[in-house]
Specification:
single chain, 280 residues, mainly alpha
């Protein structure tokens, strides 16, 4: 009976993995296919010979497509600046706010924390118009500062919530001993809380970076000139046709950073989230 259960569980995992990997595999195959193969009836899903001309155009190997390479390079830079900048800001705010909500007693602490967390339940589209007017008044449209600000505001609440749990799970005796030795709050924060919550900070950084990297509608609305890779993909949807191989080639390139993060930093993400769930 146990063997049947294990076989069934393994089969379910294989089906789930296949379901999750199918879009990635399909995208990779389409990126090395020709348009006529994809639009044929019936479509030739598996090309007889891979066609890497789409990647050649993206990386500037085709002199006629040098503008495509220039746009993709700038889009990659924009994605990195927005994602890394937003991640740095969110991690900094989460560390300070999480410590304040967990350890510092001030009037209205629980109310402020509740309001901060309640913003996660508010749909982003509900505040997009007033936020757009605010960004326009502050001259932050089509700027890196505006992108980083929007990304930070989107992921700061969940980061603060996670870091509050991480800090609240730390033994108070360690901080009390440091206080007796004459350490102030900043010394305690930087010398004790920061090292002990490092796994949590890494988890927050990974979640924030992956979320910022996948932003599409937000960038389209607030920064159409500083297009990211996700926005760049949409440019291959023309009025009368769709360049599927080019779209999928950019999609494959845009998947590389998340895949690398999941491959090499996944254990830090799991350990950080487990730390918060056990101690929080």
């Amino acid at each position: 009976m146990k063997r049947i259960a294990r076989i069934g569980f393994a089969a379910a995992l294989l089906l789930l993995a296949a379901w999750s990997l199918l879009p990635v595999i399909w995208t990779a195959i389409t990126s090395v296919s020709r348009v006529q193969d994809l639009t044929a009836m019936p479509p030739n899903i598996f090309p007889d010979s891979p066609d890497f001309s789409s990647y050649g155009r993206l990386f500037g190997f085709d002199p006629k497509s040098w503008d495509v390479w220039t746009t993709m390079k700038q889009s990659t830079i924009n994605s990195l600046i927005g994602s890394v900048g937003g991640t740095v800001v969110v991690v900094f705010l989460a560390l300070l706010s999480g410590y304040a909500f967990a350890r510092v007693k001030f009037p209205g602490r629980n109310l402020v924390f509740f309001v901060c967390i309640a913003t996660m339940a508010l749909p982003g589209y509900a505040v997009m118009i007033p936020l757009y007017r605010l960004m326009m008044e502050l001259n932050l449209l089509n700027t890196y500062h505006g992108i980083i600000l929007i990304f930070s505001s989107a992921y700061a609440p969940i980061a603060v919530w996670l870091m509050r749990g991480f800090v609240a799970g730390l033994p108070r005796e360690i901080e009390e001993s440091a206080t007796i030795d004459g350490a102030g709050r900043w010394r305690i924060l930087l010398s004790i809380v920061f090292p002990l919550t490092a796994p949590g900070l890494v988890a927050v950084a990974i979640i924030t970076f992956l979320g910022c990297w996948s932003m599409f509608v937000t960038v389209m609305v607030f920064s159409p000139s500083l297009k990211t890779l996700n926005v760049f993909i949409s440019e291959f949807v023309l009025k009368t046709s769709i360049d599927y191989p080019m779209m999928c080639a950019v999609g494959v390139i845009s998947m590389i950073p998340p895949i690398l993060i999941e491959a090499f930093l996944n254990r830090y993400l799991i350990s950080g989230l487990m730390l918060g769930s056990i101690k929080g």
